[in-house]
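Quick one: structure tokens for this chain, please?
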Amino acid sequence: MILLNRRPEHRQPLVAADASALGLAGVDEAERFLSHRQNHAETPLHALPALAAELGVGSLHLKDEGLRLGLGSFKALGGSYAVIRLVLEEASKRLGRTVDVTELDESDVRAIAAGMTFVCATDGNHGRSVAQGAGLVGARSVVFVHSGVSDERVAAIARFGAEIVRVDGGYDHSVRQAAEVAAARGWTVVSDTSWPGYERIPGLVMQGYTVIVREALRHLPKPPTHVFLQAGVGGFAAAIAGHLAIVLGEDRPMVTVVEPARAACIFATAEAGRPVKIPHEEPTVMAMLECYEASPVAWRILSRVGDAFMTVEEEDAVAVMNRLARPAGDDPAIVSGESGGAGLVGLVRAAASPDTRAALGLDAYSRVLVINTEGATDPGRYAELVGMAPEDVLLQTA
């Protein structure tokens, strides 16, 4: 299913708060913070000429976040960045001076961080990022996980020292419970979704994601004409699309937001014209996108810079995982987790439909960018779906 954006605010400027979070100054700050991370390195941008030819587009590039900061996901850029920013702000307030990221290891800063507790809800990847950020600064982290999060993903969060709290129900239940417990105990919620009165911290999380765009634009031969972005609550898609709109202006690409048909809260929001919650909570193989309530801040951005919204099916996601693992021609082999290739799934589905190609202006001259948002964050599940261990996939291009 595809829905073009007919909202009156479509292609209007971002509101001031969103433009500030996602603009040039914001990405400068995020990159500066990253430069102080010991394992920071730009993630690769792969050209996929064989797949581009199959799909009938001029070029296809994939930005691979499966290697980001040792966490295997783009989420490494959001939660940990927000945690570090919040610790420095608290230290600045208590010490009566501006505290810079270069001072994170100073004893007085670490003493302040040690008294702070950061809490979040997660499908897996965001929790690891928050836990990693807390560990870097010496703070405590508590991560709420719902019943659909695999034991392997929970163990990966716990390895960073987080306290794990299991929650019955789905992701949205865990978000609410995390917020309630944090409010009662004076903890700081670091969420990648927003709600009334809680917008700034999700804005910091999204600000971290803008680094992906800056890195990609540095290495693309020309800016993309089309971008397909996966969405859970919408924060990632909003960050990427918002920054592209700010940087490229009228030359910005056509942005298509892609979701699992079973958890399409942004699609439903686009239909309704306001943030909505899907009444059912049906699980999807695209587990990191298993969200049923749109982030209001993300929708505020996407209503302006999202050009189309579409849904994809379970079997399509698995097919793309396998296609990336077994490439044609000179395309590299890429490890993409269950949710990582959802944007590419959208492109594959769009390219196969003459009507959708026409609606999106997709043709033999299109320059398409997609982002692999995660690698094999659950290696056992990956091997089950692809029939190869992730390390064996990578050996093909070693």
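The chain is about 45% helix and 15% strand.
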